Amino acid sequence: MSEVRNDWTREEIAALFDLPFMELVFRAAEVHRANHPHNQVQLSTLLSIKTGGCPEDCGYCSQSVKAESGVKATKLLGVQEVLQRAAQARDQGSTRFCMGAAWRNPKDRDMPAIIEMVQGVRAMGMETCMTLGMLTPAQADMLAEAGLDYYNHNIDTSPERYGEITSTRTMDDRLDTLSNVRGAGINVCSGGIVGMGETRADRVGFVHTLATLPSHPGSVPINALVPVKGTVLGDMLADTPLAKIDDIEFVRTVAVARITMPESMVRLSAGRESMSEATQALCFLAGANSLFTGDKLLTAPNAGDDNDAAMFARLGITPMPITQTEAEAEAARMPRGCAKLQAAE
Ligand code: SAM
Ligand code: DTB
Ligand code: SF4
Q1: Could you say which of 85, 90, 96, 129 is catalytic?
Q2: Can you give the C-alpha Rg of the chain in angstroms?
Q3: How many domains is the chain partitioned into structurally?
Q4: What's the distance, Cα to Cα, between the start and end of the chain in Å?
Q5: Among the atoms of ligand 2, which is closest to the Cα of residue 192?
Protein backbone atom coordinates (compact mmCIF):
# COMPACT_ATOMS: atom_id res chain seq x y z
CA MET A 1 0.00 0.00 0.00
CA SER A 2 1.21 3.52 -0.71
CA GLU A 3 1.22 6.22 1.91
CA VAL A 4 -1.87 8.42 1.62
CA ARG A 5 -0.80 12.05 1.89
CA ASN A 6 -2.82 15.26 1.95
CA ASP A 7 0.21 17.54 2.22
CA TRP A 8 1.39 17.43 -1.40
CA THR A 9 3.06 20.64 -2.53
CA ARG A 10 2.64 22.16 -5.97
CA GLU A 11 6.38 21.71 -6.51
CA GLU A 12 6.15 17.96 -5.86
CA ILE A 13 3.21 17.62 -8.21
CA ALA A 14 4.94 19.69 -10.90
CA ALA A 15 8.00 17.44 -10.52
CA LEU A 16 5.84 14.36 -11.14
CA PHE A 17 4.42 15.93 -14.31
CA ASP A 18 8.01 16.68 -15.44
CA LEU A 19 9.24 13.08 -15.10
CA PRO A 20 10.25 11.22 -18.27
CA PHE A 21 6.99 9.69 -19.53
CA MET A 22 8.02 6.02 -19.04
CA GLU A 23 9.21 6.72 -15.50
CA LEU A 24 5.95 8.50 -14.63
CA VAL A 25 3.74 5.73 -16.04
CA PHE A 26 5.87 3.04 -14.38
CA ARG A 27 5.55 4.72 -10.97
CA ALA A 28 1.80 5.22 -11.44
CA ALA A 29 1.37 1.55 -12.43
CA GLU A 30 3.27 0.52 -9.28
CA VAL A 31 0.94 2.61 -7.10
CA HIS A 32 -2.06 1.22 -8.96
CA ARG A 33 -0.98 -2.42 -8.43
CA ALA A 34 -0.28 -1.83 -4.74
CA ASN A 35 -3.77 -0.47 -4.14
CA HIS A 36 -6.19 -1.94 -6.69
CA PRO A 37 -6.77 -5.06 -8.79
CA HIS A 38 -4.94 -3.81 -11.87
CA ASN A 39 -6.80 -5.73 -14.58
CA GLN A 40 -10.24 -4.65 -13.41
CA VAL A 41 -12.15 -1.53 -14.36
CA GLN A 42 -15.29 -0.27 -12.63
CA LEU A 43 -18.35 0.32 -14.84
CA SER A 44 -20.56 3.31 -14.00
CA THR A 45 -23.57 4.49 -15.95
CA LEU A 46 -24.73 8.08 -16.31
CA LEU A 47 -28.28 9.29 -16.74
CA SER A 48 -29.33 12.88 -17.23
CA ILE A 49 -32.42 13.15 -15.02
CA LYS A 50 -32.92 16.85 -15.84
CA THR A 51 -31.36 18.17 -19.01
CA GLY A 52 -30.53 21.70 -20.18
CA GLY A 53 -31.74 25.17 -19.22
CA CYS A 54 -29.09 25.53 -16.49
CA PRO A 55 -28.65 29.11 -15.20
CA GLU A 56 -24.88 28.63 -14.68
CA ASP A 57 -22.44 29.74 -17.40
CA CYS A 58 -19.79 26.98 -17.42
CA GLY A 59 -17.94 27.63 -20.69
CA TYR A 60 -17.63 23.95 -21.60
CA CYS A 61 -21.23 22.90 -21.01
CA SER A 62 -23.94 22.27 -23.59
CA GLN A 63 -26.60 22.55 -20.90
CA SER A 64 -26.03 26.17 -19.89
CA VAL A 65 -28.74 28.64 -20.97
CA LYS A 66 -25.83 30.71 -22.30
CA ALA A 67 -24.80 28.01 -24.79
CA GLU A 68 -26.24 27.84 -28.28
CA SER A 69 -25.82 24.11 -28.43
CA GLY A 70 -29.32 23.07 -29.45
CA VAL A 71 -29.80 21.04 -26.23
CA LYS A 72 -33.47 21.29 -25.25
CA ALA A 73 -34.45 21.86 -21.62
CA THR A 74 -36.51 19.06 -20.08
CA LYS A 75 -38.32 18.59 -16.77
CA LEU A 76 -37.05 16.25 -14.06
CA LEU A 77 -37.65 12.64 -15.19
CA GLY A 78 -40.19 10.58 -13.29
CA VAL A 79 -38.97 8.16 -10.63
CA GLN A 80 -40.21 5.06 -12.50
CA GLU A 81 -38.39 6.00 -15.69
CA VAL A 82 -35.16 6.54 -13.77
CA LEU A 83 -35.51 3.16 -12.03
CA GLN A 84 -36.15 1.44 -15.37
CA ARG A 85 -32.96 2.94 -16.80
CA ALA A 86 -31.01 1.87 -13.71
CA ALA A 87 -32.30 -1.70 -14.05
CA GLN A 88 -31.14 -1.77 -17.69
CA ALA A 89 -27.69 -0.50 -16.66
CA ARG A 90 -27.44 -3.12 -13.91
CA ASP A 91 -28.44 -5.87 -16.35
CA GLN A 92 -25.61 -4.74 -18.62
CA GLY A 93 -23.07 -5.17 -15.82
CA SER A 94 -22.86 -1.63 -14.46
CA THR A 95 -22.34 -1.34 -10.70
CA ARG A 96 -22.79 2.40 -10.16
CA PHE A 97 -25.63 4.60 -11.38
CA CYS A 98 -24.89 8.32 -11.55
CA MET A 99 -27.84 10.68 -11.95
CA GLY A 100 -27.11 14.21 -13.16
CA ALA A 101 -29.27 17.33 -13.18
CA ALA A 102 -28.53 20.63 -14.94
CA TRP A 103 -29.18 22.74 -11.86
CA ARG A 104 -27.29 25.42 -9.97
CA ASN A 105 -28.71 23.68 -6.90
CA PRO A 106 -31.70 21.44 -6.19
CA LYS A 107 -34.90 23.11 -4.96
CA ASP A 108 -36.42 21.74 -1.78
CA ARG A 109 -39.53 20.73 -3.75
CA ASP A 110 -37.36 18.39 -5.88
CA MET A 111 -35.93 16.54 -2.91
CA PRO A 112 -38.72 13.95 -2.35
CA ALA A 113 -38.40 12.61 -5.93
CA ILE A 114 -34.58 12.67 -5.72
CA ILE A 115 -34.74 10.70 -2.47
CA GLU A 116 -37.05 8.09 -4.03
CA MET A 117 -34.60 7.69 -6.91
CA VAL A 118 -31.68 7.10 -4.53
CA GLN A 119 -33.64 4.59 -2.47
CA GLY A 120 -34.95 2.75 -5.55
CA VAL A 121 -31.56 2.43 -7.27
CA ARG A 122 -29.93 1.33 -4.04
CA ALA A 123 -32.59 -1.33 -3.54
CA MET A 124 -31.49 -2.82 -6.89
CA GLY A 125 -28.04 -3.44 -5.45
CA MET A 126 -26.22 -0.68 -7.31
CA GLU A 127 -24.08 2.09 -5.85
CA THR A 128 -25.79 5.44 -6.19
CA CYS A 129 -24.29 8.77 -7.25
CA MET A 130 -25.99 12.12 -7.79
CA THR A 131 -24.71 15.35 -9.29
CA LEU A 132 -27.20 18.16 -8.76
CA GLY A 133 -25.08 21.29 -8.29
CA MET A 134 -24.52 23.07 -4.99
CA LEU A 135 -25.93 21.55 -1.79
CA THR A 136 -26.72 23.07 1.58
CA PRO A 137 -25.68 21.06 4.67
CA ALA A 138 -29.38 20.18 5.22
CA GLN A 139 -29.77 18.86 1.65
CA ALA A 140 -26.56 16.83 2.00
CA ASP A 141 -27.94 15.33 5.22
CA MET A 142 -31.21 14.41 3.47
CA LEU A 143 -29.30 12.62 0.70
CA ALA A 144 -27.13 10.81 3.26
CA GLU A 145 -30.24 9.72 5.10
CA ALA A 146 -31.66 8.34 1.83
CA GLY A 147 -28.50 6.22 1.52
CA LEU A 148 -26.70 8.11 -1.28
CA ASP A 149 -23.24 6.56 -1.72
CA TYR A 150 -21.46 9.28 -3.76
CA TYR A 151 -21.98 12.91 -4.69
CA ASN A 152 -20.22 14.22 -7.81
CA HIS A 153 -19.16 17.85 -7.78
CA ASN A 154 -16.14 18.72 -9.88
CA ILE A 155 -13.61 21.45 -9.20
CA ASP A 156 -12.99 21.35 -12.97
CA THR A 157 -9.64 23.20 -13.15
CA SER A 158 -7.05 25.12 -11.12
CA PRO A 159 -8.20 27.78 -8.62
CA GLU A 160 -6.43 30.41 -10.79
CA ARG A 161 -8.30 29.45 -13.96
CA TYR A 162 -11.69 28.80 -12.39
CA GLY A 163 -13.06 32.32 -12.95
CA GLU A 164 -12.29 32.14 -16.68
CA ILE A 165 -14.38 28.98 -17.08
CA THR A 166 -17.40 29.82 -14.92
CA SER A 167 -18.42 33.24 -13.62
CA THR A 168 -21.69 32.40 -11.85
CA ARG A 169 -19.99 30.71 -8.87
CA THR A 170 -16.51 30.45 -7.37
CA MET A 171 -14.12 27.63 -6.60
CA ASP A 172 -14.85 28.32 -2.91
CA ASP A 173 -18.57 27.65 -3.55
CA ARG A 174 -17.54 24.30 -5.02
CA LEU A 175 -15.28 23.51 -2.05
CA ASP A 176 -18.10 24.47 0.37
CA THR A 177 -20.44 21.91 -1.22
CA LEU A 178 -17.71 19.26 -1.07
CA SER A 179 -17.33 20.03 2.62
CA ASN A 180 -21.12 19.73 3.16
CA VAL A 181 -21.08 16.37 1.35
CA ARG A 182 -18.16 15.09 3.45
CA GLY A 183 -19.78 16.42 6.60
CA ALA A 184 -22.93 14.40 5.87
CA GLY A 185 -20.80 11.24 5.52
CA ILE A 186 -21.37 10.84 1.74
CA ASN A 187 -18.38 9.78 -0.36
CA VAL A 188 -17.05 12.56 -2.57
CA CYS A 189 -16.60 12.19 -6.33
CA SER A 190 -14.65 15.16 -7.64
CA GLY A 191 -12.40 15.77 -10.60
CA GLY A 192 -12.37 18.01 -13.61
CA ILE A 193 -11.68 18.61 -17.27
CA VAL A 194 -8.40 18.78 -19.14
CA GLY A 195 -8.04 20.15 -22.64
CA MET A 196 -9.77 23.49 -22.00
CA GLY A 197 -6.72 25.38 -23.27
CA GLU A 198 -5.19 25.40 -19.77
CA THR A 199 -1.45 25.39 -19.03
CA ARG A 200 0.56 22.59 -17.41
CA ALA A 201 0.64 24.80 -14.28
CA ASP A 202 -3.18 24.76 -14.25
CA ARG A 203 -3.18 20.97 -14.42
CA VAL A 204 -0.72 20.94 -11.50
CA GLY A 205 -3.03 23.30 -9.54
CA PHE A 206 -6.05 21.15 -10.40
CA VAL A 207 -4.50 17.90 -9.11
CA HIS A 208 -3.02 19.74 -6.12
CA THR A 209 -6.45 21.04 -5.06
CA LEU A 210 -7.91 17.51 -5.10
CA ALA A 211 -4.92 15.82 -3.47
CA THR A 212 -4.86 18.30 -0.56
CA LEU A 213 -8.55 18.08 0.33
CA PRO A 214 -9.12 16.95 3.96
CA SER A 215 -9.63 13.44 2.54
CA HIS A 216 -9.09 12.35 -1.06
CA PRO A 217 -12.25 11.99 -3.13
CA GLY A 218 -13.32 8.33 -3.32
CA SER A 219 -13.69 8.85 -7.09
CA VAL A 220 -11.76 11.24 -9.31
CA PRO A 221 -13.28 11.69 -12.78
CA ILE A 222 -10.81 13.00 -15.36
CA ASN A 223 -12.72 14.35 -18.35
CA ALA A 224 -11.17 15.35 -21.67
CA LEU A 225 -13.11 18.34 -22.98
CA VAL A 226 -15.82 17.30 -25.43
CA PRO A 227 -15.86 20.39 -27.63
CA VAL A 228 -19.52 21.24 -28.19
CA LYS A 229 -20.42 23.76 -30.91
CA GLY A 230 -22.17 26.79 -29.43
CA THR A 231 -20.27 26.66 -26.11
CA VAL A 232 -17.48 29.16 -25.38
CA LEU A 233 -14.80 26.48 -25.09
CA GLY A 234 -16.08 24.27 -27.90
CA ASP A 235 -15.98 27.23 -30.27
CA MET A 236 -12.60 28.39 -28.98
CA LEU A 237 -11.13 24.95 -29.66
CA ALA A 238 -12.65 24.84 -33.14
CA ASP A 239 -10.87 28.15 -33.92
CA THR A 240 -7.55 27.19 -32.30
CA PRO A 241 -7.10 23.44 -32.81
CA LEU A 242 -3.56 23.68 -31.40
CA ALA A 243 -5.13 24.28 -27.96
CA LYS A 244 -6.30 20.64 -27.96
CA ILE A 245 -4.48 18.65 -25.29
CA ASP A 246 -2.18 15.98 -26.63
CA ASP A 247 -2.73 12.37 -25.63
CA ILE A 248 0.57 12.03 -23.76
CA GLU A 249 -0.21 15.06 -21.57
CA PHE A 250 -3.65 13.59 -20.86
CA VAL A 251 -2.07 10.28 -19.75
CA ARG A 252 0.40 12.25 -17.60
CA THR A 253 -2.55 13.90 -15.80
CA VAL A 254 -4.12 10.48 -15.10
CA ALA A 255 -0.77 9.15 -13.83
CA VAL A 256 -0.19 12.09 -11.49
CA ALA A 257 -3.75 11.76 -10.12
CA ARG A 258 -3.09 8.04 -9.48
CA ILE A 259 0.22 8.65 -7.69
CA THR A 260 -1.05 11.50 -5.51
CA MET A 261 -4.40 9.84 -4.64
CA PRO A 262 -3.41 6.16 -4.42
CA GLU A 263 -6.64 4.74 -3.01
CA SER A 264 -9.12 6.70 -5.13
CA MET A 265 -10.92 5.33 -8.14
CA VAL A 266 -9.62 7.35 -11.11
CA ARG A 267 -12.31 7.53 -13.77
CA LEU A 268 -11.58 8.00 -17.45
CA SER A 269 -14.70 10.08 -18.11
CA ALA A 270 -15.87 12.33 -20.96
CA GLY A 271 -13.87 12.36 -24.18
CA ARG A 272 -13.31 8.62 -24.67
CA GLU A 273 -15.43 8.60 -27.80
CA SER A 274 -12.72 10.43 -29.72
CA MET A 275 -9.80 8.79 -27.87
CA SER A 276 -7.86 5.94 -29.47
CA GLU A 277 -7.89 2.57 -27.80
CA ALA A 278 -4.11 2.84 -27.44
CA THR A 279 -4.44 6.07 -25.44
CA GLN A 280 -7.14 4.52 -23.24
CA ALA A 281 -4.85 1.50 -22.68
CA LEU A 282 -2.07 3.86 -21.57
CA CYS A 283 -4.54 5.50 -19.17
CA PHE A 284 -5.40 2.09 -17.66
CA LEU A 285 -1.70 1.33 -17.36
CA ALA A 286 -1.24 4.72 -15.64
CA GLY A 287 -3.90 3.83 -13.08
CA ALA A 288 -7.32 4.74 -14.48
CA ASN A 289 -9.70 2.07 -13.18
CA SER A 290 -13.22 3.27 -13.88
CA LEU A 291 -15.25 4.48 -16.85
CA PHE A 292 -18.72 5.43 -18.01
CA THR A 293 -20.60 2.80 -20.01
CA GLY A 294 -23.09 3.27 -22.84
CA ASP A 295 -23.28 5.36 -25.98
CA LYS A 296 -24.30 8.59 -24.25
CA LEU A 297 -22.91 10.61 -21.33
CA LEU A 298 -25.35 13.36 -20.28
CA THR A 299 -25.79 14.99 -23.68
CA ALA A 300 -22.56 14.03 -25.48
CA PRO A 301 -21.73 10.74 -27.19
CA ASN A 302 -19.75 8.06 -25.37
CA ALA A 303 -17.72 5.09 -26.63
CA GLY A 304 -20.61 2.55 -26.53
CA ASP A 305 -20.86 -0.85 -24.82
CA ASP A 306 -19.91 -2.91 -27.88
CA ASN A 307 -16.71 -0.94 -28.44
CA ASP A 308 -15.86 -1.17 -24.75
CA ALA A 309 -16.52 -4.92 -24.61
CA ALA A 310 -14.18 -5.38 -27.59
CA MET A 311 -11.53 -3.18 -25.97
CA PHE A 312 -11.78 -5.06 -22.65
CA ALA A 313 -11.42 -8.38 -24.49
CA ARG A 314 -8.33 -7.15 -26.36
CA LEU A 315 -6.75 -5.77 -23.18
CA GLY A 316 -7.76 -8.65 -20.88
CA ILE A 317 -9.68 -6.27 -18.60
CA THR A 318 -12.71 -7.48 -16.65
CA PRO A 319 -15.45 -5.38 -15.05
CA MET A 320 -14.82 -4.73 -11.36
CA PRO A 321 -17.38 -6.53 -9.21
CA ILE A 322 -19.43 -4.40 -6.83
CA THR A 323 -18.00 -6.17 -3.78
CA GLN A 324 -14.67 -4.52 -4.54
CA THR A 325 -16.05 -1.03 -5.06
CA GLU A 326 -18.42 -1.33 -2.08
CA ALA A 327 -15.59 -2.45 0.16
CA GLU A 328 -13.58 0.57 -0.94
CA ALA A 329 -16.55 2.81 -0.41
CA GLU A 330 -16.97 1.50 3.13
CA ALA A 331 -13.28 1.94 3.84
CA ALA A 332 -13.41 5.51 2.57
CA ARG A 333 -16.56 6.37 4.49
CA MET A 334 -16.16 7.84 7.95
CA PRO A 335 -18.69 6.93 10.62
CA ARG A 336 -21.39 9.57 10.22
CA GLY A 337 -21.16 10.99 13.75
CA CYS A 338 -17.40 11.28 13.41
CA ALA A 339 -17.66 13.07 10.03
CA LYS A 340 -20.18 15.52 11.46
CA LEU A 341 -17.96 16.24 14.42
CA GLN A 342 -14.98 16.88 12.16
CA ALA A 343 -17.05 19.15 9.89
CA ALA A 344 -18.16 21.14 12.93
CA GLU A 345 -14.57 21.76 14.02
N1 SAM B 1 -24.82 20.68 -12.79
C2 SAM B 1 -24.00 19.81 -12.04
C3 SAM B 1 -22.64 20.36 -11.79
O4 SAM B 1 -22.18 21.24 -12.50
O5 SAM B 1 -22.00 19.90 -10.85
C6 SAM B 1 -23.89 18.40 -12.61
C7 SAM B 1 -23.71 18.14 -14.06
S8 SAM B 1 -22.21 18.71 -14.82
C9 SAM B 1 -22.60 18.43 -16.49
C10 SAM B 1 -20.97 17.53 -14.37
C11 SAM B 1 -19.58 17.70 -14.91
O12 SAM B 1 -19.50 17.25 -16.25
C13 SAM B 1 -18.97 19.09 -14.97
O14 SAM B 1 -18.51 19.54 -13.72
C15 SAM B 1 -17.83 18.90 -15.94
O16 SAM B 1 -16.66 18.53 -15.25
C17 SAM B 1 -18.32 17.74 -16.82
N18 SAM B 1 -18.60 18.22 -18.19
C19 SAM B 1 -19.67 18.93 -18.59
N20 SAM B 1 -19.60 19.22 -19.90
C21 SAM B 1 -18.44 18.68 -20.35
C22 SAM B 1 -17.80 18.65 -21.63
N23 SAM B 1 -18.31 19.26 -22.70
N24 SAM B 1 -16.63 17.99 -21.74
C25 SAM B 1 -16.09 17.39 -20.66
N26 SAM B 1 -16.65 17.39 -19.43
C27 SAM B 1 -17.81 18.03 -19.27
C1 DTB C 1 -18.05 13.84 -14.66
O2 DTB C 1 -16.95 14.24 -14.20
N3 DTB C 1 -18.28 13.60 -15.93
C4 DTB C 1 -19.65 13.22 -16.15
C5 DTB C 1 -20.19 13.13 -14.71
N6 DTB C 1 -19.11 13.60 -13.92
C7 DTB C 1 -21.46 13.75 -14.34
C8 DTB C 1 -20.36 14.14 -17.06
C9 DTB C 1 -19.69 14.28 -18.39
C10 DTB C 1 -20.52 15.16 -19.24
C11 DTB C 1 -20.00 15.25 -20.61
C12 DTB C 1 -20.75 16.20 -21.46
C13 DTB C 1 -22.19 15.87 -21.72
O14 DTB C 1 -22.59 14.70 -21.79
O15 DTB C 1 -22.93 16.82 -21.91
FE1 SF4 D 1 -25.05 23.77 -15.27
FE2 SF4 D 1 -23.48 21.79 -14.38
FE3 SF4 D 1 -23.51 22.50 -16.99
FE4 SF4 D 1 -22.41 24.14 -15.24
S5 SF4 D 1 -21.71 22.06 -15.72
S6 SF4 D 1 -23.83 24.73 -16.89
S7 SF4 D 1 -23.72 23.83 -13.46
S8 SF4 D 1 -25.17 21.62 -15.85
Answers
A1: 129
A2: 19
A3: 1
A4: 30
A5: 2
